[in-house]
Every structure is written in C-alpha cells, then in structure tokens.
Amino acid sequence: MVKIGNIELGDFPLLLAPMEDVSDPPFRAVCKENGVDVMYTEFISSEGLIRDAAKSVQKLDIFEYERPIGIQIFGYDIASMREATEITAAAHPDIIDINYGCPVKKVACKGAGAGILQDIPKMVEMTSEIVKSTTLPVTVKTRLGWDDDTKYIEEVAERLQDVGIKALSIHGRTRKQMYKGEADWTLIGKIKENPRITIPIFGNGDIDSPEKAKLYKERYNVDGIMIGRASIGYPWIFNEIKHYLSTGQKLAAPSISQRVEVCKKHFDFSIKWKGDVLGIVEMRRHYSNYFKGIDHFKEYRTQLVTATTAQDITDILNEVAVTYEDYAFV
Questions:
Q1: Which of 209, 239, 266, 283 has the highest Cβ tally under 10 A?
Q2: pLDDT digits (tens, 9 = 90+) for 271-326
C-alpha cells in the first residue's frame, strides 16, 4: 500500500500532474470519473495568494469528491512560500505540493519552479520551512536538474526526504530540455534503488499508453506514475492503464459518443465554474485532444473554437456525435 503521510493510495497510484491552464476543477472532474487516484491543482503563485489576487485565490477551489487532492504552490521567496502554505492549508487540501519543476521562463528565471534547481541549498531550506509551517503532508514535484551538468536529483531526493517531505514526483527531463526529447527515467530508477529512500517516488514524463506504463513500472520500480499531457482530452488513460496492469488486456478506445459526452460534461462544468466568456475561451484548447485522430475534423474544430455561445457549442458537439457515429477508432 502506497501512502502519502497517512493517506492510503492503493498499490500503484496514478496521479494527475498539475498543469497550468489545464488542471482546473472541470478537467479534474472528468479525470476523477475515469480512474485517477490523486490530483493536483494548477500551480498557484505564493505572491498571488499573499496579495489575494483573484486568479490565484480561485485556484484554491477544491471539492469533496476530488479527495485526495493536493494544492500546488510556487515561489522564490522563502517567507512568502511559508505564508502561502498557511493560506493554502486553510482551503483544507489533503496535500500541499511544492513546484520545483516548472520550466517556463517567466517562472524559472525568477528562481521559482525549476529555477531553484540552480540553488539546491535554498531548495532544501525552503522545503524545510514549508514542512515546519503545516501539519499537512508536503510533497514535491521537480526535474532531474537544471541541465545535463547539474542532474543532482539523487542527492536532492535524500535531502528533501530528510527535511520531511512525504513523496517526490520526478519529471525525467532537465529544465533546459523543457518538454523536448525523450524523458530519461534512469535516475528515477536509481533513486528507487537507494536504501535510504523510504518515501514514495512517482515517475513522470512521456507515459502515453498502458503498455508504456507497465514497462516503466517494471523497469524503474516506481511507486506510481504521474500523467500530464497524455490525459489532456483523454481522461480515459487512467482506467486504461489500471485495466491493463490488472488484466494484461487493453480496453477498447472510447467511442465518439463517449468522447462527446465527456467533452460536454467538461464544457458544462467550465461554464459553471468560470462563467460563459472565460469558460468558452478556455475550453478551446481541449477540443483537438478530445477528437484527436478523427479524419477530416478540422472544419468542426474551427466551428468549436470560433463559436461564442454555450448553445452553439453544444449543438456542434451533438452534430459531431451524429456525423461520426460509426467512426472506428484504432
């Protein structure tokens, strides 16, 4: 049984990665219905929480059915991160997660996210202060290092465990790689072989099929897998992996009617949570993924991303279901 603190997660948990502009409550809802074990919010700026910025505060919204759920925070100032931890704890998540992995320039070049990988002592000190400022279990998501010359993740894993984190998720790339090239799980596997490491180690990066999940589970002996991009528009991946791990059989791909149904559910929640304008605009990034692989879908995609009312979008999705009713997914 894998545990984060006292939270039992099953024998091999699947985690939804925190993704900016993706891992909001509407997206998390459809992932929860499709088998994910642990979810994290979009990352939240510590400075935004302290300033009571509306966008940051809204990201604290969590729902009972989502549990266990972690709220992820990021920042470069230790005092601000400690204060943000207290604000976050008041929203009653099950877990507080620290983002030491975001590679985007506006975050990393300020010393937050993956930027802190250039200052490991500060990373350890910040983590220690956050752990001491809350009774909730604290977890960390990070990368192998800043670049190929600074892959200190084996040392980092020990030091973060020593200051009290309860689990570590590792993306198998450096900050310099961003999301390019192939994720390298070799060092993740070495951390699992380290007898000093007793906390759960979750691998992240490039898991996009049940077969690959099984291969990496067995090859690197991780305690669970965190899935990000492969779940966008395809929340079925969690149940597909679980089914394959337990039976060795692949589930049939979701039909067009199932895709439309889940897409509509996602869209309806998006409208409800964000309002008509923002709900419609922010949903546009998901349509291509929900209907990925369908021949000649470009015309419908254009309609979906240019429609401006909820009724129009619902009508288009209903038409998609009829048009492609007999489409055979491979």
A1: 283
A2: 999 999 999 999 999 999 999 988 889 999 999 999 999 999 999 999 999 999 88
Could you tell me whether strands 201-204 and 224-227 are parallel, antiparallel, or unpaired per DSSP bridges? parallel
Dihedral (Cα; 168, 87, 114, 217), 10-degree rounding: 20
Phi, psi of 159 (to 5 degrees): -70, -35
Q: How far apart are the C-alpha atoms of 101 and 158, rounded to whole Å?
A: 17
CB atoms under 10 Å from CB of 298, counted, come to 10
Domain boundaries, the chain: 3-247, 256-323
**HEC readout, 32-54:** HCCCCCEEECCCEEHHHHHCCCH
* CATH of 3-247 given 3.40.350.10, 3.40.50.150, 3.20.20.70, 1.20.1250.20: 3.20.20.70
Per DSSP, the three-state class of 248 is coil
96-110 as b/e: b if 16+ CB within 10 A: bbbbbbbbeeebbee
Alpha-helical runs (H) found in 75-222: 78-89, 105-108, 120-132, 153-162, 186-193, 210-220
Q: How far apart are CA 214 and CA 195, in angstroms?
A: 23
Nearest to 72 by CA among 258, 295, 228, 253: 228
CATH architecture entry for 256-323: Orthogonal Bundle (1.10)
* Whether residue 234 has pLDDT greater than 80: yes
Q: Which two tokens stand for residue 241?
A: 């992996």
Residue 93 CA, chain-centre distance (Å), reads: 15
Which residues have a Cβ under 8 Å from the Cβ of 242 and sit 6 or more positions away? 14, 35
Are 162 and 178 in contact by the 8 Å Cβ rule? The answer is no
pTM for the predicted model, two decimal places: 0.94
Other CB atoms within a 10 A radius of the CB of residue 325 amount to: 11
Catalytic residues: 102
